[in-house]
Amino acid sequence: MNNALIWVIVGVALCAMELLIPTAFVESALGVSAFVVALLSFVVPGWNYQIVLWMVISLLMFWALKRFVPNRTAPALREATEARTTTAIAPGETGRVIYEGNSWQARCQDNHVSIESNQEVFVVERKGNTLIIIPLSTFQ
């Protein structure tokens, strides 16, 4: 079998996999790189050189496409946000709050303070899926 034909088959397979399993153009970039190597296989002899060429072209394509892939950072919390507890939060423990219409896991910033159920709280920060809160009565 011809090297160019093998690279075309690999390129088609990788591009088809991108259609089935979206990977933010990773498999498409690898597939297009395989098509380029298929064209260059008439000039570049030997599998070893072709595989190295495929890796180099793939890396260059990833570097070129990086600017088009959206950054997946977590959205920041708005300043001065309030929530309402749905469960009592014991000192150093976690409970639940309603924040922006959704139920969140929450923990008090001060590990020595307990917060009763159905109280207004102030959201200080977010750590993963847990909100760090303080009682609103602290400010009044």
From TrEMBL:
Keywords: Membrane, Transmembrane, Transmembrane helix. The keyword Cell cycle does not apply. It is found in: Membrane. It comes from the Bacteria. Pfam families: NfeD. InterPro entries: Membrane_assoc_protease, NA-bd_OB-fold, NfeD-like_C. Its main location: membrane. GO terms for cellular component: plasma membrane. This is NfeD-like C-terminal domain-containing protein. The lineage of its organism: Bacteria, Bacillati, Cyanobacteriota, Cyanophyceae, Leptolyngbyales.
